Amino acid sequence: MKILVAAPRLPFPLDKGDRLTVFHFLRYFSQRHEVSLACFQEPDQDTAWQEHFAPFCERIEIVPLRRSRAYASCLTGVLGKTPLQVRYFADSQMKKTIRRMVGDLQPDLLYAQLIRMGQHIEPHSDIARVVAFNLSMSLNYRRLRDHTSNLAKKLFYGMEYSKLKSFEADFARRFDRVLLISPYDFDAIHQDTPLENVFFCPHGVDHDYFTADPQAVREANSMILTGNMSYAPNVDAALYFCRDIFALVHRQLPNAKLTIAGADPTPEVRNLAQDPLVEVTGRVPDLRPIVNRAQVGVAPIRIAAGLQNKVLEGMSMRLPMVVTPAANEAIQAVDEEHLLIAESPERFADAIVRLLTSPKRRTELGRAARRFIVEGWTWEAHYSKLETMFESLVAAKRRGAADSSASGSTGGP
User: What top-level class would CATH report for the domain 2-204+379-409?
Assistant: First the structure.
């Protein structure tokens, strides 16, 4: 197959979920298919980064994201029905680029990463079109609205939630297939408008890369929280942990310490390092050494949709994890077997203390977590099923085109 991918940004570095997904998509599908990429370049992204994914692509077209135009588009559309994140990426230059690449490459399938990029492949209805929604953005924004105390943010999240709730399902029906990660996301979209074109495709983890270092020295009573720290759900998780959970851990383990590791921490997150027992690293070239020195991983996620890659990566590295039910929604690991699940601050803190004070339990949980990942959470396992679906979809599209052509040539209806 010839596949043309439309992505919202360069798929590198691998510090955001969409970059991670597109990078592994390119790597997997380029093994047996011709894959080309059209993507935006944000102002802080270096075009030299394409050397990391260029070997997977037949052709790459990069369109600078014009933020002034994007903000103006959002401002003029505040009162409209289209979600602002869709308007933000409604760029005429990207539409022209996709149209030109379709003409040059004659792809068999168009793949758009996230709802915001679907608009750029929508016009090409004669080609198999797949949009990786991955998560329900309406569910994500509803949870953002419900968990913020900032009035301005609550109003913004509520407005975007209302737009997405009426837009999401209708937009999904315009494509041949829509990819979602979990039934929770499907239920959030499907509840008002039935959808028949959904294919479930979870993410994976590179377990050969995310492997524990057996020589690493674990620091006593150390915890780690990872994720992109400019992403609102991760920011909320860090603030929630330090405000409501950390003190409860300290009551039993006064010297317990936390490392918050992830790119682009907001000022709120950076300020958490005023506590001498909290370290905020910012962007690091390789997360693994930091993870290897921690005894317990935490994912106190309250605002979740889609999949928590950070949990998969920690489990792959045999890091015993304590997570909220929301963080485990799409993963469906078994409580007390693969990780520990706790919702209230008190239960979350107690679960952490249980692990920090029991080397045997940490080892057992870490081994079970690694086994859980290797047996069912590889990119190859999920993308092989996606590949089969793509091939069937393309074949069906070709049959439909042939039938339509035959009908037209014989004067049929």
Answer: alpha beta
